[in-house]
Amino acid sequence: METVNHQLNIQKTEHSRLPSEPLHHIPFGRIFSDHIFVATYDNGTWEDLKIMPYSNLTMTPAMAVLHYGQAVFEGMKAYKSVTGETLIFRPDANFRRINKSAHRLCMPPIPEEIFMEGLRELIRLDSAWIPESEGSLYIRPLYFATDEFIGLKPSTHYTFIIMSCPVGAYYSEPVKLIVTDKYIRACEGGTGAAKCAGNYAASLLADKEAKALGYDNVIWLDGIHKKYVEECGTMNLAFVIDNVVVTPQLTGTILEGITRDSVLTLFRDQGVKVEERLIPIEEVAEAYDKGILQEAFGMGTAATIAHISKIGYQGRDLILPPISERKYAQSILEQLEAIKTGKVPDPYHWIWKI
Questions:
Q1: Cβ distance 28 to 168 under 8 Å?
Q2: Is 143 helix (H, G, I), strand (E, B) or coil?
Q3: Which of 16, 185, 204, 351 is the most exposed place for a label (fewest CB within 10 A)?
Q4: Contacts of 276 (CB under 8 A, 6+ apart)
Q5: Is 291 helix (H, G, I), strand (E, B) or coil?
Q6: Using one digit for the tens of pLDDT, what is the confidence trace for 162-174?
Q7: Would you state the pLDDT for residue 133?
């Protein structure tokens, strides 16, 4: 059982970089806040909890994560409310999911007190980095193996870091996706449901080839039949077919998205019919041909809701209606943003105030 040597040491930066970083028109993931939270795991004990100025890491070429890929991460966002409060959206869900991912990669669980206290104190310290007019503070918990040993076994040493960066929109325009059956993302029994670094590395070639064809990313199909829609490289997916919101069911091969769960909850509570099931890509194409494919959209922390404008499939493009004609995804996007920024009550207890 893991133990915690629990004392959080805070070292504030002497020179904030904030005055030199105007928080408007912010590129995604390029500008980082002043501090990071760091905790280490050593042979059964969590220790050396600290908040320190953002800086480079030192590492050995033998570090286990570089050789065997024991690395998982999360993504969440903090916002400024209309009254100036700092709000974080569903961090408890991120805490549970990073430990599910860690379990799949044979990594010890992160104690809740470490995750939550580190998050709370870090965001309190760097709350001035949250854009007030547009955008949010993207928060990235990162957890990886640090044994200095070249041998295939679970590490006995780990580092857990929380960092943050002010961000604008991940996608500035509706996205264009292409269906791939050349590559697969995950198979049953694999790591598809874990948010581990290797999943994203394995997706990059398909993404590169999609961009060369003029698309923004790919739609993955299942790894056995190459028939059923799974997810996009950065988001869970949903379609509105004849006024029904249809999304792939969680079979263990796709990520259990927190935004996905939030969106489906809102839809159901408003009386919209929602189906979580296997979705053959041919069904999507046939719905398009019948004129009943009304919308397609992605759901994720970085993108929130991303409208899909075009789906490339078997040499043709399925062109979706303009945003002005869509009533489902845009409405949910506005409702989610209102909850996240405290403009409307939060009946789900999703918001954590710092």
A1: yes
A2: strand
A3: 204
A4: 247, 248, 249, 250, 264
A5: coil
A6: 999 999 888 889 9
A7: 74
Q: What angle do CA 184, 216, 292 make, to 5 degrees?
A: 85
CB 312 within 8 A of CB 178: yes
Cα Rg of the chain, angstroms: 21
Burial class (CB in 10 A: 0-12, 13-18, 19+), 296: buried
Non-local (6+) Cβ contacts of 174 within 8 A are 306, 307, 308, 309, 320, 323
CB 329 within 8 A of CB 303: no
**323 Cβ contact partners less than 8 Å away, ≥ 6 residues apart:** 174, 307, 330
Q: What DSSP letter does each residue of 153-211 carry, written as one string?
A: S--SEEEEEEEEEEE--S-SS-EEEEEESSS-S--TTSSTTS-BHHHHHHHHHHHHHHH
Tokens read off for 202: 């394995």
Reading phi first (left if > 0) and then psi (alpha if -120 to 50, else beta), residue 219 is in beta
Point out the residues of the chain with pLDDT beneath 70: 1-5
Assess contact for 108 and 39: CB atoms under 8 A. Answer: no
Phi, psi of 297 (to 5 degrees): -155, 160
Q: Helix %, strand %, coil % for the chain, to 5? A: 25, 30, 40
Q: What is the pTM of this model?
A: 0.95
